[in-house]
Write a sequence for this structure.
């Protein structure tokens, strides 16, 4: 079925990712940081911690916790976005924390907090997956103990075709979007959403395509971290 | 949320690993469902739903407003959710929590992506005036699985929503005093939430099960369309590809039974 | 003077209450709860506590405290109400706490809090009195030690007549409204407001009529609690 | 509020049970009243009131706006209150406290229910434009009985409020540059607050008395109308029917003396 | 250069202050207070402390801290101001605290807070300087240990002339405004802002004129405090 | 902010008293400056600036709105600043802190008082429609001296801002789809921040220097105009008259070098 797929509006094949660039260690103050570009997206991620927090009710006696703040810059989209959290960013912050958490080994840091910021400097479709991908690199850059480096990618349906890594235009005009994140070593899924219109079979196809996309991006994460270590 | 004694966690997990649930249900069996439509006379649509002991009231209130620039011929739906302090000891008054926002947005995405309300029929005058519907979700008793209970209540409320017939005359909207139209609901959405505990994936988690869940997955399937239209994973543990596909399959097989409560 | 009073717009006599229904123990999670319908009002009340609270400044070293939250559902009124507290509900929450407090015996619960929620599911005139009535039943259902079960009712002036338990229409078109709450055993008054236009004599008449109304409703509270205990 | 040594509570209560107040006043006697009208040149109406050492400043600012749908021919009054941090050690900056909201609403209800401002005369063009008056209450020194002090200040400020003469010409409001009209104030409101301490009911409580009050009752009586138009009970203790009727009666008998300060 | 300056719109000479009135100890509850009128400005200042605070993160282990709240009454300006802090008042509160702090000797009050309120009852140009001047008197009235009494005054450029103590009209139509505060004993500057358009020479002239203005107002502060002590 | 070991404070102060800075710079020497213009394709103007390791991104987004009543023929600039939690361990999410508001207002006053943007050219139709520009300052790495870094980024972003050509036709604004105009920037502002440590006044403080500053002074000087147009003192210590005049003088002498980075 996927043998005779057509090229997409931007010339990509159905299973072709947009160009990606990842750089680790781009900020001075943060304990860890990363910069990621994919298509027209420009994303910064930072990590502070594990550290104490004055928000005691968030802490846990037997493990460290992760807090994620996903935020879009006012100038990151066509119509200026009002600063501060909205309902969308609150939801994404919550599921991004769930997506990153399974890879972290925070048991040795009880009553401490790892603060992750995902800052969307410019948005062009797929910011939540790209943000999680960047945040995972920043977590590694910060030296947080992890069993894997989480990576995110979406697949979806555009013009009745299942394709990977939707652009902003494809996301807007397409029929479905399935953003996921995985732990690439085991292939286990840590983030999964879907919206649109998919048959059971189409969903399975999309899921597998997104997993493949994640695996490709995972390699770029590791290269960015290698470059960071070798530059030190 | 609340802290569950480790012993409860172990006993529930052991049961599930043995293929049993603490309340005796099958893995793909829901709790009792009770739907009371039209509970609020002052609302244009409403319903109260009990799913086990979880209780949700939904009211639908319309107002007339201007359409969005990019959809000048479509009405607007807005879903809001209140996790009332009465519903659980840990629910505090104040601005909506991330949990409450997630619930509202997952329910909202289901309605929106399934296109079950024909928004074009909510247009009064293209580019000028459309119906805007506030769908307010009031959670009054939280005993597990707010997603499915809320979606059922929203479905029931939308299905009994009536709007006054509106006409656009001389740059103003004139509402009929006695003629009403049914809200154009052209499909139904079945929302099914599963949690993974131990090695098992169980449908419609009770509070006890939710408190110890490893991972959660919610799947929205349309009745007529027979399509997946929304999905949301939660929880701090991952799911395998096969667990997800199993859950999706169960969402399809249990759909008709769930939606029969709406007839 | 009150012998030849006319029937009211909805056919009631001047001293006739709207139909009332009270049910205790309607919620699972809450420590105590009650559901009340009077006229077109639909009201839920819940109680949690006595319990600890992280809002330390509200606690007292020598006694338990009560906190009340009166809230109207967005769909409870003709024009949708914006969610969240407004000035009116903040004031009613405050005076409802004052109205319920005198009956509570919280001396054995220092540094603890009793949280009462009054949720107006549908409003049709007289919600504050009905809310207090429901909350008192929920407090009893929660087993909070009390010397009496507070009960509320209003009287007012409509078409120059003093009448009890104003409907929404009477409240809007009437000349005065006097909502009260009492502890029925002693007849002492724990809530009193008035607005409108009353002579000294009319006020006295309204006060007495409201007290009579309270006493009738008090019986229904006790019946509801009896039904609750016998069903257990 | 502040914690009062038990010994102070006892001594004040004992005195009151003996028919005396700690500052020597009779039970139905107010503290000294001082009213300075027109204290703010930039406000269209204003007054500063001292009641004992309690001090309140009120400013009235008008703006032009659209009337409410259900009262197209009436102007609008809005009362707002700030318990300034300077007024007492326990007053914190931030969103209005329940105490501040109660104060504003009790004062507001008094003005509104007494109908002392002729709102019809604040209509500029029916259904189109009316005067909207912001009545801002600034509490600068809190030494007891904010209700009565605030009401007095509002009365005095309203009585000296002047609005520019407004005309509605070609769908716009034109304001006269030199002609003004007095705010149409057609009645006055006497607000009287009593507290119950021990067996006594005393008028115009001092701070000391307020800090140990069992119950509080505030009663609004109109001057011309000679009617009760508002009432508010406060405090954690109940009042008997007869205590209430006594307070009401005292509100009538002390009214003229109070309002004489406004002449 | 300043010998042949013209009289200003309100008849003042270039180095002439508006009429000023200062009174100390005008409030009962506050630990210290002051009332100040200058031109059409009417300003109240109050002080509470040094005292404990529940906002622990503001306290310091080795010294007392000062917190200032500058606030304009809704009725203090021509168009009613919405109650509550805005960006302008937040900035002024911050720099007013910096302006008053150097004179305070709070080392003997660790973990305590001095709360200063500056309330603009009526505004007519130059409220920040006048507010600081009033606050310094209130601090002295409260008995806070100080090495000097801070005093504020502005100078600016109007009709190409450097003048002192701009009125509201001059501030609006003028070319520059330089508000300062000093500790008069040493002449050191504790507040300095500027906006508008000044050459280096004009700035120096304005600075010196504002310093002179401060010194004159300083005398009135001392007189107000003397009157306060003698009346006690 | 962070607590600095007393020993660091002493050693930095001792160095400065000896005429040296810990990073070897001269007292009037800035750190390395790097400006990358046009970093945000979706913004009509943008720049990223590194000053040492301090990093700021500025985006300019225009919208069309109504002018203020008292300036019917002028466009509107609005400056907003976010001290992002990523920029420093002490920056918390939430409403803007006083530090963030001060930064935004000082930068804003510089632009406004220097009149470097010709606001009249942002008028589309007098009294009806004007361009309103949001200037959003995003601080992503805080290593000292946010004032000067932010101002540089704003200058660079304004200088590359392009607006669609707008016409007012039949009561509506029509935007050209391909024609743009440069934002009318007619001057440049050099903002120079000095801190006093010990006996010295040093330009462009590093984080280390800011953490132990006694006093801070920021001075804005226009390029063409060669005028002082804004100034802001900070910090808990005073400055003498002569220190201020020295700082002002240094602001003039170092101006050209600073602004050369904008060419």
């Amino acid at each position: 079925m996927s043998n005779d797929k057509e090229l997409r509006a931007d010339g990509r094949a159905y299973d072709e990712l947009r160009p990606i660039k990842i750089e680790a260690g781009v900020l001075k103050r943060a304990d860890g940081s990363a910069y990621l570009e994919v298509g027209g997206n420009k994303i910064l991620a930072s990590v502070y911690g594990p550290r104490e927090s004055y928000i005691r009710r968030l802490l846990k006696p037997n493990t460290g916790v992760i807090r994620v703040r996903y935020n879009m810059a006012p100038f990151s989209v066509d119509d200026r976005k009002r600063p501060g959290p909205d309902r969308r960013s609150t939801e994404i912050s919550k599921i991004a924390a769930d997506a990153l958490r399974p890879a972290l080994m925070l048991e040795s840091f009880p009553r401490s907090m790892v603060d992750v910021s995902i800052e969307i400097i410019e948005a062009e479709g797929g910011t939540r997956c790209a943000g999680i991908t960047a945040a995972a690199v920043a977590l590694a850059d910060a030296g947080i103990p992890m069993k894997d480096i989480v990576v995110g990618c979406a697949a979806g349906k555009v013009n009745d075709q299942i394709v990977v890594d939707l652009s902003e235009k494809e996301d807007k005009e397409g029929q479905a979007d399935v953003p996921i994140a995985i732990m690439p070593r085991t292939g286990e899924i840590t983030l999964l959403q879907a919206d649109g219109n998919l048959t059971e079979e189409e969903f399975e196809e999309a899921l597998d395509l997104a997993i493949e996309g994640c695996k490709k991006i995972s390699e770029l994460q590791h290269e960015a971290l290698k470059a960071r270590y070798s530059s030190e | 949320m609340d802290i569950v004694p480790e012993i409860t966690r172990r006993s529930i997990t052991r049961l599930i690993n043995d293929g049993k649930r603490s309340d005796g249900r099958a893995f793909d069996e829901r709790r009792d469902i009770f739907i009371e439509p039209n509970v609020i006379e002052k609302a244009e649509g409403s319903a109260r739903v009990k799913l086990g002991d979880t209780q949700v009231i939904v009211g639908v209130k319309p107002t007339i407003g201007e359409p969005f620039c990019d959809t000048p011929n479509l009405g607007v739906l807005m879903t809001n959710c209140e996790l009332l302090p009465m519903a659980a000891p840990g629910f505090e008054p104040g601005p909506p929590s991330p949990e409450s926002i997630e619930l509202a947005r997952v329910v909202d995405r289901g309605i929106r992506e399934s296109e079950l309300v024909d928004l074009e029929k909510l247009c009064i005058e293209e580019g000028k005036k459309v119906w805007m519907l506030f769908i307010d979700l009031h959670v009054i008793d939280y005993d597990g699985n707010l997603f499915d209970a809320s979606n059922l209540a929203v479905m029931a409320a939308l299905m009994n929503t009536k709007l006054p017939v509106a006409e656009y005359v001389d740059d103003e909207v004139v509402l009929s005093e006695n003629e009403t139209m049914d809200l154009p609901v052209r499909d139904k959405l079945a929302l099914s939430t599963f949690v993974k505990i131990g090695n098992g994936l169980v449908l419609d988690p009770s509070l006890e099960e939710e408190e110890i869940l490893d991972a959660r997955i919610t799947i929205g399937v349309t009745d007529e369309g027979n399509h997946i239209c929304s999905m949301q994973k939660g929880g701090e543990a991952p799911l395998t590809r096969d667990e997800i596909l199993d859950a999706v399959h169960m969402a399809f097989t249990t759909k008709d039974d769930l939606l029969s409560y709406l007839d």
Summary: The mean pLDDT of chain E is 95.
